[in-house]
Write a structure and sequence with these properties.
nucleus; 380 residues; 4-stranded antiparallel β-sheet; protein dimerization activity; DNA-directed RNA polymerases I and III subunit RPAC1; 9 helices; acetylation; DNA-dir_RNA_pol_30-40kDasu_CS
Length: 380
C-alpha cells in the first residue's frame, strides 16, 4: 500500500508531455502499466533521449505497422497540417530557420542539395602568361578557383564539355596583372614591407573583369567582381610579377567544392530539457552552471531560488549535468525528433534566403523526375 501511495504522489514537471500519476490515477495496476507503456511508445516516436552513457531512440520509427494502435502511414493532409518553416534569424550572409514536421531523410537531402547542387560561378581555367612569384602555377590556380565570384548563376548557362572558348552566356573573364616594385619614397632605415615595396601583396581587388560580347551592356559596372576585395592571393618581392587570365564558368559543388554556394549548411534537432522535480537553493545555481548560458534560469519564488528551463534552444548538450551526482537524476535530456534547426551561411554569391529557395527548386525537380520515371516504368 505504501508503494501504491508513493506512485500516486509521484509527479513530473507539468511543462512536459509525460504521463504522471496523481490522486485521480486509475486504481487498477494493469491500467497504470498500459498508460505507462503508451507513454513510453510516444516518447520513442517523438524524442531522441540522451543518457549518461548513450543515446536512445536514435532510429526513425514512424512507418506503418511499427507500433500497435498507431497509424503511422504517410498522410498528405496530416503532413500539411503539421509541417511548418519558421525563420528565426536572417541577415546578409546567414540564415537560421526551423523546419518542423519532416523526416530526417528529407532534412538531410535538403542540406546536401545546399552544399552540392545549387550552382555558382567560379574560376575554372587559368591562362598564365607570366608568374615569377614563389607560388607555383597549379597552386595559384587552385587559390583563384576558391575565390567566390559575385555573379548570379541563374543568368548564365552551363558551358558544354570540350568548349575551349567561352561565350557571353556561359563564361566570365577576369584579368590579374600585378608587378612588385620598390618604393623610392621609403625611409632608408625602414624594414616594413608595406613601406619598402609597392604591390607586394596581391589581393582580389587587383582582379579586373573583362566583359565578353554584350556583357558590358547587360551587367552594370561593378556588379561582376569577387565577393570580397581583401582576399590575399599571393605575396611578391621587387621584380616578381603575376600576369594571367581567368575563365569563370557555372558549376555545382558535387563536381568541385569551389562551386559550393555556402560556407556551411547544417542542422540539429531542437533540444528538449525537462526538470523531473523542483530544484531549489544552491542546487538551482549548480544546475544553471551545467548548461549553456541562458538555458536554465534561476528565479526568486517566495524567498527561494528556483530553477526553471528558460530557453533549451541555446543548449549544445555538453552533458556536463551527468558529472554532477546529485543533479543528474533530476533532468531529462532529449531532442525533438521532427524539429530541425537549420543554419545556412552563404559565401556571399547569393543571399541565404535565395539559396534556400533554389535548393527547394532542385528538390522539387528531383521529385518530378522520380515521378516521371515511375510513370514511364508503369507504361512499359
Amino acid at each position: 500500500m505504501a508503494w501504491e501511495e508513493k506512485e500516486r504522489r509521484r509527479r513530473v514537471a507539468p511543462e512536459t508531455e509525460e504521463y504522471y500519476w496523481n490522486a485521480r490515477a486509475p486504481e487498477s495496476l494493469v491500467e497504470k502499466l498500459k498508460m505507462a507503456a503508451a507513454h513510453a511508445v510516444e516518447e520513442m516516436r517523438s524524442r531522441v533521449v540522451l543518457g549518461e552513457f548513450g543515446v536512445r531512440n536514435v532510429h526513425t520509427t514512424d512507418f506503418p505497422g511499427n507500433y500497435a494502435g498507431y497509424d503511422d502511414a504517410w498522410d498528405q493532409d496530416r503532413f500539411e497540417k503539421n509541417f511548418r518553416v519558421d525563420v528565426v534569424h536572417m541577415d546578409e550572409n546567414s540564415l537560421e530557420f526551423d523546419m518542423v514536421g519532416i523526416d530526417a531523410a528529407i532534412a538531410n537531402a535538403f542540406r546536401r542539395i545546399l552544399l552540392a547542387e545549387v550552382p555558382t560561378m567560379a574560376v575554372e581555367k587559368v591562362l598564365v602568361y607570366n608568374n615569377t612569384s614563389i607560388v607555383q602555377d597549379e597552386i595559384l590556380a587552385h587559390r583563384l578557383g576558391l575565390i567566390p565570384i559575385l555573379a548570379d548563376p541563374r543568368l548564365f548557362e552551363y558551358r558544354n564539355q570540350g568548349d575551349e572558348e567561352g561565350t557571353e552566356i556561359d563564361t566570365l573573364q577576369f584579368r590579374l596583372q600585378v608587378r612588385c616594385t620598390r618604393n623610392p619614397h621609403a625611409a632608408k632605415d625602414s624594414s616594413d614591407p608595406n613601406e619598402l615595396y609597392v604591390n607586394h601583396k596581391v589581393y582580389t581587388r587587383h582582379m579586373t573583369w573583362v566583359p565578353l560580347g554584350n556583357q558590358a551592356d547587360v551587367f552594370p559596372e561593378g556588379t561582376i567582381r569577387p565577393v570580397h576585395d581583401d582576399i590575399l592571393i599571393a605575396q611578391l618581392r621587387p621584380g616578381q610579377e603575376i600576369d594571367l587570365l581567368m575563365h569563370c564558368v557555372k558549376g555545382i559543388g558535387k563536381d568541385h567544392a569551389k562551386f559550393s554556394p555556402v560556407a556551411t549548411a547544417s542542422y540539429r534537432l531542437l533540444p528538449d530539457i525537462t526538470l523531473l522535480e523542483p530544484v531549489e537553493g544552491e542546487a538551482a545555481e549548480e544546475l544553471s552552471q551545467c548548461f549553456s548560458p541562458g538555458v536554465i534560469e534561476v528565479q526568486e519564488v517566495q524567498g527561494k531560488k528556483v530553477a526553471r528551463v528558460a530557453n533549451p534552444r541555446l543548449d549544445t548538450f555538453s552533458r556536463e549535468i551527468f558529472r554532477n551526482e546529485k543533479l543528474k537524476k533530476v533532468v531529462r535530456l532529449a531532442r525533438v525528433r521532427d524539429h530541425y534547426i537549420f543554419s545556412v551561411e552563404s559565401t556571399g554569391v547569393l543571399p541565404p534566403d535565395v539559396l534556400v529557395s533554389e535548393a527547394i527548386k532542385v528538390l522539387m525537380g528531383k521529385c518530378r523526375r522520380f515521378l516521371d520515371e515511375l510513370d514511364a516504368v508503369q507504361m512499359d
